[in-house]
């Protein structure tokens, strides 16, 4: 198996605190390392963040942060890449909308590799 | 590529010891090696203490061997594990045995893995269950999972009903499917904290199961494992 690209989240405006729908979570069982780029296209209110969660089974109650507190700050612009290894099978995002101002716009891309 | 190698069948030593050259094993296929010493009998006075060392060498000559790592010193019957990587080609063991008229009976197994990209697997190690039995409770040996082909295990424990006072879930691993061969992995799960908990383990030996200790009412929990070969 070679690498795989996942558009985990195409560009979206975060209008309220939300979690990615379960049916949109991606399955990375066959991959050991995921390189995740978060692109903050429009900066939003202070305190707005997005974090990646993982779970061994596709149930809301099974999801937890891959690394607690390892968020993308959505109150600033720019690209930021994070690398995780040995995650559980399913990956999704969990975003917090805070502060006033405009809605932050972000996207998440993932390159997954078997080693 | 992965395998379990019995470096030393059951033997009794009464003094310092070095394995004969002819019994050294060729581990050149394996990048990652996890060893276990099973100390099944220990006698003597003045605190008999066994310390086993794994030695390695690129060629099969006595003078080429050097220490790669030592197991935790043992002063009582029990098992200890040691993780090594990037060993040279040949491997043997040596030991020091201190005390007065000491005697130690031991077995040494090695689990070798190449760490190459290969398979991955999801395994429900334990469906939600209410424990039966008095603390500590260990998973039945026939429910232990064979993780020989997998180097990295990402393990999540969901705590469904918390124990009355306290509780801990520990993974145990063994090179062979024998009750006496299991040893505790270092990292544990706190069953009295309701939060989801995930830990990653690398280079456990072949068979994996859980052990739970608790105080107060009986906990209910679920254990899921994501396993990868690298």
Describe, in short, the structure shown.
By secondary structure, chain A is mainly β. Chain A contains no helices and 10 strands. Chain A has strands spanning 4-13, 18-19, 26-27, 33-42, 49-55, 64-65, 72-73, 78-85, 90-96, 105-113.
Secondary-structure topology with pairs:
The complex is a heterodimer of chains A (115) and B (230).
Chain A: E1 4-13, E2 18-19, E3 26-27, E4 33-42, E5 49-55, E6 64-65, E7 72-73, E8 78-85, E9 90-96, E10 105-113
Antiparallel strand pairs in A: 1-10, 2-9, 3-9, 4-8, 4-10, 5-6, 5-7, 5-9
Chain B: E1 2-13, E2 17-18, E3 25-26, E4 32-57, E5 66-70, E6 78-85, E7 90-113, E8 120-130, E9 137-138, E10 145-146, E11 152-161, E12 166-174, E13 183-190, E14 197-202, E15 207-215, E16 220-228
Antiparallel strand pairs in B: 1-7, 2-7, 3-7, 4-5, 4-6, 4-7, 8-16, 9-15, 10-15, 11-14, 11-16, 12-13, 12-15
